[in-house]
Amino acid sequence: MVLASSAFALAATPAYAGPATPAYAGPAALSAPAGLAAAEVSFTAKDGVVLHGTVIAPAPAPGSGTRRRAALVMMEGAGNRGRGNLLPEAEAFARRGIVTLIYDKRTVGYSLVHRDYSVLADDALAGLRLLRSRADVDPGRLGLWALSEGAFAAPLAASRSADVKFLITVGAVGIAPAAQTAWQYGEYLRHAGVSGSLPHTLQSTAIRMTMSAGIFPEANFDPAPAWERVRQPVLAQWGALDRQAIPQESGRIIRQALERGGNTRHTIRIVPGLRHNLQLTADGGFDRIVSLPPDYGAYEASWIERSASARPGTSAGPAPADDLPVPTFTPPAWYESPWWELVAFLVFLVGFAGYPVTAVVRRVRGRRSAPPARRPARWLAALGLATTLGGLAYVLFMLATAANVIGPVVAGHPIPWLVLRLLAVATVVTTAACALSWRRHRRDMTRGDKARVGLLIGAGLVFLPWAVYWGLLV
């Protein structure tokens, strides 16, 4: 299981390049929307990686001269979707008189299995220096705007530079990424009507295994210490229908961290009717349509103007009750080592796949005799392979889609998971039948047949605790 998980993760990881290579070519030069100006820019990160972006700004009126304006460096959420992903928000801010920089996130040092929020913070500060050098930017109204995962790095950046005059976050998470991911899985599964063993498998077993295997980057990162060091005015916002960032709990944690650090200039804002990225939703926050509210950016623009004198804030709008408790993770048990998973997977390959392979070899060599237990053995080999490989594929699919593609649910089980559970029961029953047949006919078997069927039964016995651990038999 863990071997295939690692292969999946590595296959999805962009290839690394040298330190001076552009991180991501990104989209073609973004054209300037009507009434706005767009300028393609490049800037160099602290470690020498060249980053590319676009500055979106209000178009200067003819003959009006240069006017200094408030400005934002916009930090993307998880993944590397390119600067165009934040273009609608950047345009909305620019239409309200704010200069914005959107840029392509690095891939050198950032991938599916590796990332460093400290490095991402330095990248944002490099972009801030670029904005600060522009004639149309007011250095006294220059700040950071960060979405989701970007809000893990933004407080680090703010604590490192006095050039950051304010910090705005959207969908910031106040707990470790592993616990947040588990909570998000629970929200999507509950929304789809899933119950039974699958939520525990995804929220606990799969996440713990990826953590043990070292392919869950920054899994235990604690954001609170970085928030304690932020001295600038802070506007932390969540959509009331945020199904990813645990808005109520994250807001409480971030507020307490700021106050522990002595920061009294913060506003915690919960916005009714909006989802994780403060966009509109047609499905209670579980969809991902791209649709900005008509007044997007108005509150932020007003807040920036008064941020120098900001006072302690209170939540604007009702804070939603978090439907599910925040999962906690204890250190993995000895049997949760990736090496034990690898051993189990090899046993399944040798036992379940080895039986039909040796049968083919025997046929090729002209040995057509078969052991007396061949019928239950054939069933066990087929069922064991289908269940282990199918279970592996399904769990990987659910992880890759963040439990957001569920499909039809029957009796609290997605149909693929229900089929896998039935196959698991059939595998256990067939293991018992094969063992009884082997015991009854062992004197009629050759030594080679005993070994073949014995390995097959051994794989079936290992399958039992493995299936229990992965939730297929509980």
Low-confidence stretches: 1-27
Ends distance: 19 Å
Q: Count the strands?
A: 10
Indicate the CATH topology of the largest domain: Rossmann fold
- The number of helical segments is 13
Which architecture of the largest domain would the CATH scheme give at its second level? Answer: 3-Layer(aba) Sandwich
- Helix/strand-derived class? alpha/beta
Strands side by side in the biggest sheet = 1-2-4-3-5-6-7-8
Question: Topology as H/E string?
Answer: HEEEHEHEHEHHHEHEHHHEEHH
Envelope shape: elongated
CATH superfamily of the largest domain: Alpha/Beta hydrolase fold, catalytic domain
Overall residue-averaged pLDDT value: 87
Rg, Å, rounded = 28 Å
Q: What does the main sheet amount to?
A: 8 strands, mixed
Helix content: 40-55%
The CATH class of the largest domain: Alpha Beta
How large is the share of residues in beta strands? Answer: 5-15%
Number of domains: 2
